[in-house]
Structure formats: structure tokens, C-alpha cells
Amino acid sequence: MTETVPGVLSVSGESQQRLPLIFDSPHSGTQYPPEFNHAADPALLRQAEDTHVADLWAGAMAHGAVLLEAHFPRSFVDANRAPDDIDPDAITGSYPAPLNPSVKSRLGIGLCWTRVPPAGGAMYDRPLTAEEVADRVARYHRPYQARLRGLLDDAHARWGAVWHINCHSMKQFASAMSTQDRGTERPDFVLGDRDGTACEAGLTEAVRLFLVARGYTVAVNDPYKGMELIRANGAPAQGRHSMQIEVNRKLYMNEITREPNAGYPTLKACFTALAAHLADHVETRLKRTAAE
Question: Of the candidates 26, 101, 192, 212, which lies 20 to 30 Å from 92 by C-alpha distance?
Fold first, then answer.
């Protein structure tokens, strides 16, 4: 059974959950709200999406995990950003809370994107209003973050620990909107655990070894260490383990048309097998804790 909040999110696998293993895909949304009112070329704007990522991980539910996915696009409001991560110079009016822009906001990819991929042209032909931003946070951003936290809290209460996999995709080459030099080629995968502070080291290593054994190139915390959902939910000393997995889009789709390529079935099968591997890892950890 799938729980759906129209236009906002869906949760799948909760009624069959048998492990404290939660996957979330905050950037795979493709339902563009009518109030977006951007001035961007829709084809270019879609390059911001982690298109198909939730579907690629759908096999995780067969192994007792839960999958949360956003339906709204990250360029409208980014569920993987803090609610204060916006440049005050990018909006008009008085925002109802203090703002704390990060490097992502300065690149135009903070809480509400102000730049269009890949070249970084203007998203709007007008400044965003503080009221618009606050409304997006209230109706989309906050419900997503709260639902994720609720899933994690429920699992932690039931099993005494929880493992969270934050699922993303990345462009094959760094764009003008990246913290890397434009044109830098990315590996097949980047795993992020905020330099080992967001999860037990064994989780990151288990995923890295699994992928390397299948011939993939894997980097850890370079260039992606994990953003807000990892920062807010990863606390390994409390039995809360969060890590981010970025997959190179070249492995599964055409970055321009967004259509799956010939590698899609192979990658989806790999993710289902990785979910099974993670389920084994979680079960092992739970048994070890119970025996101590």
C-alpha cells in the first residue's frame, strides 16, 4: 500500500516494513506546481531533476525497506536544503525567519533555485517574494522533511536504531552551477557521509565494496558529502545512520531527453541487489546489538 499526498510526496512499503531501513528520493519529483511561474525553458529546467531515481530504488521494498519520494521538483523548492538556505538579496519582502545562505544559494541552487541548469541563466523574470518562498516551505518542503523524520523516528523507536539512504543522481560532467570546475567528469557513484560523521563507517564501506566489486568507480565525500537531510538525521552515536548515494546519470538515461537508456535495467537490478545487501547489513547489526 502506498500513502500519497497529492503533488507533495508518497511513501511505499510501510505496511510491509520489516527492517529499520528507509530510502528517500527528494529530487525525483516531476510534478511542476502551477504557482511555480518560472521563466525557464522547461527542457533545460528538467536537468535539475533526479529523474527516475525513485523507480530505480523501488526494489528495496521487497527487502523490507520503506521508500519516500518527493513529487514536486527540486528547482521549485529543494527538500534537501535547510529552510533558511536562501540569499536574502534574491527575494523581496520580509521573510518570517532569519536567513542563512550557503554556498549552494550563492550558486543559485539553494532552497528555491534562482538559476537554470546547466549554464546558470536566470530562473525568473522577476524577484521571488518572501511570501512565495514561505508558502513553498509550508506546503511542500516542511511536509517532506517532517515525513522523513517521522519514518526515521518510528523505525528507531521500534528497533532501537535506523539506517537511512538518501538517493540522488548527478550529471556526468560538472556544469557552471557546480562547486567543481566546469567539465569535470564524475565517477559512477559518490557516497556521502559528511566525512564519517553521519553514519557508522561500516555502512559506507559496505556500499563502496559492493559497487566496486561490480566494476563501478566510486568516490567517497568528493564532491558530495551529503546535504541537509543527512546533516539533520545522521547521528550514529544515537543509532541513527544516514548516508547519501549519488549515481551518474550516464549509467541509466539520456541527460537531455530524460529517457531511460540501455543501461537502465542493469542499474535497477543492481540497486535491488544493493538494497538486499543493505538489508543483510542492517539485520547483522541488529543481531549483534541484541547479543551484546
Answer: 26
Report if pTM > 0.70: yes
List, for residues 88-125, the tens digit of each pLDDT value: 999 999 998 899 999 999 889 999 999 998 889 999 99
* SS3 track for the chain: CEEEECCCEEEECHHHCCCCEEEEECCCCCCCCHHHCCCCCHHHHHHHCCCCHHHHCHHHHHHCCEEEEECCCCCCCCCCCCCCCCCHHHEECCCCCCCCCCHHHHCCCCCCCCEECCCCEECCCCCEEHHHHHHHHHHHHHHHHHHHHHHHHHHHHHHCCEEEEEEEEECCECCCCCCCCCCCECCCEEEECCCCCCCCHHHHHHHHHHHHHCCCCEEECCCCCCCHHHHHHCEHHHCEEEEEEEEEHHHCECCCCCCECCCHHHHHHHHHHHHHHHHHHHHHHHHHHHHC
